[in-house]
Design brief:
Blueprint lengths: L2 H76 L4 H40 L18 H13 L1 H7 L1 H37 L1 H16 L3 H37 L4 H13 L5 H14 L2 H25 L8 H15 L3 H27 L1
Helix pairs in contact: 1-2, 1-5, 2-5, 3-4, 6-7, 7-8, 7-10, 7-12, 9-10, 11-12
Length: about 375
């Protein structure tokens, strides 16, 4: 064996050893990375499981805090720059707006149930006979009159005839009331969290901006600003318009002397928030008005109901999308689509997601045009 052969063998052995060491190092790094990713995944999963009950209340709290922050700043100025007093005032006012209608609604429901149950037990429950004017109702007049007349003549027989439907409706109503009660408690919890967010607005905004910048780079701060404006826009354009419609409907119901005007106004508010035409609530009430009022006042009340129902078509363009560099149609589609997908909170989430997506799409198009130029 020559010296050159010996050197060649040594070089080959060294190369093989280096390859083995590199493979071992690569495998070690892969194992370390896999373990690290696994630990991070376990931590994230654990955090999600722990925080899952609070996710929806926190999202609502963010929406409430952003929506009420302008009012918080004004109150702070009026109350001698006292942030705690301003936050306390907002909490108390918000709670009163939620608890008072809830008490009225629950009291009305309890009284109605007690009245019906007592009447059934004592066989004193009676339905007054329908007016002849009911027959004049378009499409459903004759059928409604016959059903109403049967109930007034023999209520027990009518109840037995529709017992399965009544039982199914009652169970569904109880389930819905339980859900509403849970939602009210959750909303109250969100109000207190929102107060904490408003008291720490600068810290919260700084944390959000840093997070968005870490994820989206230079677009992070503008995205956070646009998200806040979108929440305000939806709050004004959807919730604000719904509140205006409910107030207008309530005024008309009170003047017309409709029983349970406050409860009906609350139902109108819920229907308007869910983007349902409020005429489906006010229409039957207006029809009822023709049976208990004269033709002229009943007609005026019907016109008022129609005006209230179509007022959202005028008011929404005035409020929705205001202050946001995104077309109103994008905000509206995001709000309605989000609500259909995720309930009431989807109004805000859907609008924000679609607004951000729209801006990213526009930026991508502009960037492509710049590169071509």
């Amino acid at each position: 064996m020559t010296a050159s052969d010996s050197n060649s063998g040594t070089t080959s052995g060294t190369t093989a050893n280096n390859e083995v060491n590199e493979n071992q190092l690569y495998i070690r790094k892969m194992i370390d990375t896999t373990i690290s990713i696994g630990i991070v995944f376990i931590l994230i999963s654990g955090c999600y499981l722990i925080m899952h009950p609070f996710i929806l209340p926190v999202i609502w709290a963010i929406v409430i805090a952003v929506g009420l922050f302008p009012a918080f700043l004004k109150l702070k100025t009026w109350l001698g720059n006292s942030e705690k007093l301003s936050a306390t005032t907002i909490v108390l006012l918000s709670l009163s707006l939620i608890i008072a209608p809830a008490i009225m609604m629950s009291s009305s429901i309890v009284d109605s149930v007690q009245y019906i149950s007592t009447g059934l037990e004592q066989e004193s429950l009676a339905v007054p006979p329908p007016s002849e004017k009911v027959k004049e109702w378009p499409v459903i007049g004759e059928q409604t009159y016959q059903f109403w007349l049967s109930a007034s003549e023999n209520l027990e027989a009518v109840l037995k005839q529709f017992a399965p439907e009544i039982k199914s409706f009652s169970s569904g109503l109880l389930s819905a009331l339980a859900g509403i009660g849970g939602g009210i408690l959750q909303f109250i919890f969100s109000i207190f969290i929102a107060a904490a967010f408003m008291l720490n607005a600068d810290k919260c905004n700084s944390a959000l901006v840093k997070t968005a910048t870490r994820i989206m780079g230079s677009r992070g701060p503008s995205t956070i600003e646009m998200s806040g404006k979108t929440i305000l826009s939806v709050a004004q354009g959807v919730l604000g318009v719904a509140l205006i419609q409910a107030i207008l409907a309530g005024i008309g119901l009170v003047i017309a002397g409709i029983p349970g005007a406050g409860l009906w106004a609350l139902i109108v508010l819920l229907a308007a928030v869910m983007q349902l035409p409020v005429l489906i609530i006010l229409g039957p009430i207006a029809a009822y008005g023709f049976t208990v009022m004269g033709t002229l006042p009943a007609s005026v009340f019907l016109i008022w109901c129609v005006v209230v129902s179509i007022s959202d078509a005028i008011l929404k363009p005035m409020f929705l999308g205001r202050g946001v560099d995104v077309p109103m149609l994008v905000i509206l589609l995001g709000a309605i689509g989000g609500m259909l997908a995720a309930g009431i909170i989807g109004l805000f989430i859907g609008a924000i997601v679609l607004a951000i997506s729209y801006q990213l799409f526009v930026a991508w198009i502009d960037q492509a045009e710049t590169q071509e130029a």
